[in-house]
Amino acid sequence: MPRFGATWTVTLLLVVVLGGTFLFCEYLIYFPTIFQCSWPVVSHGRGGNDVDGPRGGGGGGGGGDASEPVRAMVLSDTHLLGAVGGHWFDKLRREWQMERAFQTALWLLKPEIVFILGDIFDEGKWSSQKHWEDDVRRFHRMFRHSPDTELVVLVGNHDIGFHYEMDWFKLQRFEKVFNASSTRIVTKKGVNFLLVNSVALHGDGCPICQSVEKELLRLSKDLNCSLQSSQTGGSSSSTDSCDGAQMYPPTPPIMLQHYPLYRVSDASCTGQDAAPAEERHLLFREKYDVLSKEASQRLLQWFRPRLILSGHTHSGCEVLHENKYVEISVPSFSWRNRNNPSFILASVTSQHHSLSKCFLPEESTVIGVYCSAGACLLLLLLLHCLCLKGLLQCLSLCLLGKHKSL
């Protein structure tokens, strides 16, 4: 009877430790981690953007601005694995992590709009229609959201291919799934978010490149006309050249794209989510790691954005272009690309913005918890075996003593 009770006690402890560890690592761990994040307070003065601390700095133009800020969540490079290069366990592990992180963030933070800055899929550049549909189905399951939250997806090189792989079929397939053009302006509460198909900015005259550049020029004209109209009170002398232009709120846009603007390397990048020290001095290749100098200069000249948000590098970085245009590189959202994924929380009004960074649980932490739990279980089993062995020895000695006495 004592042996039966001890065995059941040990079994119960094993179940509790295993179940508790699994529940914590796969579900509960996201709540205390993301609960520490909060929406940054919009500062109405001029300032920089500190996205490494719990609170971001203010940015934007001067003037009063009492409007309610747009609460925007920005993440990048989810890289849902495909049928060719994706191992089933890798898919299960990393996609579950992103699903739980995203759903927990939605529940705790309640963003009004979510931007994903490209490379949604890992194999969109070559996947068959059947595999593409399977990837899309998994994406919609993982990143499901309520009608109160708008999900806006940008295109990346893994979604439609690098410039030399890109074609109309893959681009239109992507745009059809997300029901919108890959280059457009999304306006919310008087804030203009400019979405750029940066994969098509090689400037070599390819048909898709020409189409995207034409659309960007049109959007630039519309925004500039809106600014001119607000400054001159809509007088006819200033708006004659703007006939047919679509009017947007008269504020500089926040520009979102997959590729970063041109920079030499990540040498100046700092913070816990920057590229590893041994990689920061590696030179970037134009039109592959970053946009070309010419394309970058054109975008800045056309739109004069108050903030640029980009992905692609999988690491965080803050860059100041021409001493006035701030660009934030958003790290990958997936454990497959980095140990400490994160996303950006942005509070944005028509004149100001403030950013903060929210880190997800580290994969090394979860592995450490599993290893610790495994070590505890082995120790428990070892102690149980030793106790059982000692009990059997005692019983055998007792029985042997009784036998001799008889």
Topology:
Blueprint: H1 2-28, H2 30-35, E1 58-60, E2 70-75, H3 88-109, E3 113-116, H4 129-142, E4 150-153, H5 157-160, H6 168-177, E5 184-188, E6 191-196, H7 207-232, H8 236-239, E7 254-257, H9 293-303, E8 307-310, E9 317-321, E10 325-329, E11 342-348, E12 352-359, H10 363-405
Parallel strand pairs: 2-3, 3-4, 6-7, 7-8, 8-10
Antiparallel strand pairs: 1-12, 2-11, 5-6, 9-10, 11-12
Helix pairs in contact: 1-10
Could you explain how this protein is built, in words?
This protein is α/β, with parallel strands linked by helices and 406 residues long. The chain has ten helices and twelve strands. The protein has helices at 2-28, 30-35, 88-109, 129-142, 157-160, 168-177, 207-232, 236-239, 293-303, 363-405, and strands spanning 58-60, 70-75, 113-116, 150-153, 184-188, 191-196, 254-257, 307-310, 317-321, 325-329, 342-348, 352-359. The strands form two sheets. The protein has a six-stranded mixed sheet with strand order 1-12-11-2-3-4, with no helix packed on it. Strand 7, helix 9 (293-303) and strand 8 (307-310) form a beta-alpha-beta unit. Helix 1 packs antiparallel against helix 10 (363-405). The longest helix has 43 residues, at 363-405. It is elongated. The chain starts with a helix and ends with a helix.
Q: How do you describe this structure in short?
A:
The protein has 406 residues and is of the alpha/beta class. Helices cover 41% and strands 15% of the residues. Helix 1 packs antiparallel against helix 10.
